[in-house]
Amino acid sequence: MKDRKLLAVCILAAFMFVDAAMVAEDVPKPALSAEPGAFSVRRGPKTGFAVLQVDESLLRQPTDFLFRGICRYEPGANRWQRMPWSLISTPTRLEPHPPGQGANSPRVLVQLPRETALFCVYWTEREAGKTGSPPPAAIWREALAVSGPILCEDLKLGPRPAGSVAACVPFPDRAEARFVPMPAEECGVILPLELTRTYDDLVAAFQSGKQGEIEKFCLAAKIKFTDKPRPEDRREYGQDINLPFLKHGFSKEVLNFSKNSDGEYLIRTGTTALWFEKTKDGEWKLFRYLDKPIE
């Protein structure tokens, strides 16, 4: 009985889900498109290699699933490493169906790398089939995935150090329970808090329409401003900050972003791409700007 309890603790850690604060705090919280547990990580019965799966009988409405990223924990360096992945940016439409009907359930969405490792996977769920501006907000998810033939027997490690999470780290011949760094920021799947605040302040400056206020958030001589409306057929396109477009065309909702390095991020909205750089003084500054709608 004791062994079963210990095994259950480890399995629970492998399947845990955490809602991640990925974007600016003013984005409205979207309605859940699925019951809790619809998406889960499962280990293969023989190899222990992990998959990300969905039980479509637990979906509340048609849902667009988008795999966002995968990181692998490196035990020797005690850090997370982002892995290249071909499925990123390839959405999958999922349809709800009653238990026992439709496609086989659970359905495998992503086969994780077939290796012994601790992974952290990220995806979004978005209610499908609705139109409007802005589009329905996506729900970001993350889950730890223990992949390999051996599980930990106990995750009781004592008080948790700040910035860490208890996890089972598998090896070919054993598995160790340990505290590992929180993966999200190391993997570049959440924005640094100070950058989030800078973006919020920049959006407020955009809404003011005052060039002097906006320039406070830009690297000197890097950004061009224009104050005359663009031609109607090119209204949504340009590498300049066009003040009339900011007033009547710019969309502030963050749809995606990428981490180019610890000191450089790209933020993408429905209308605009914004590149930020962290200065030697620790401030985030806009150094490149592009209006181009996502089609």
3D architecture notes:
The chain is α+β, with helices and mostly antiparallel strands. It has 2 domains: 2-186, no CATH class; 193-291, Roll (Nuclear Transport Factor 2, Chain: A), CATH 3.10.450. Helices cover 15% and strands 36% of the residues. The chain is built from 5 helices and 17 strands. Strands 1, 4, 5, 6, 8 and 9 form a 6-stranded antiparallel sheet that branches. The longest helix is centred in the C-terminal third of the chain and has 16 residues, at 193-208. Residues 1-32 have low confidence and may be disordered.
Radius of gyration: 22 Å
Mean pLDDT: 80
Order of helices and strands: HEEEEEEEEEEEHHHEEHEEEE
Report strand %: 35-45%
What is the count of helical runs? 5
How many domain units? Answer: 2
Reported for the largest beta sheet, the result is:
6 strands, antiparallel
Structural class: alpha+beta
Helix content: 10-25%
Number of strands: 17
Query: Could you name the ranges where pLDDT drops below 50 across 5 or more consecutive residues?
Result: 1-32
Q: What would you call the shape? A: globular
The span between the termini is 56 Å
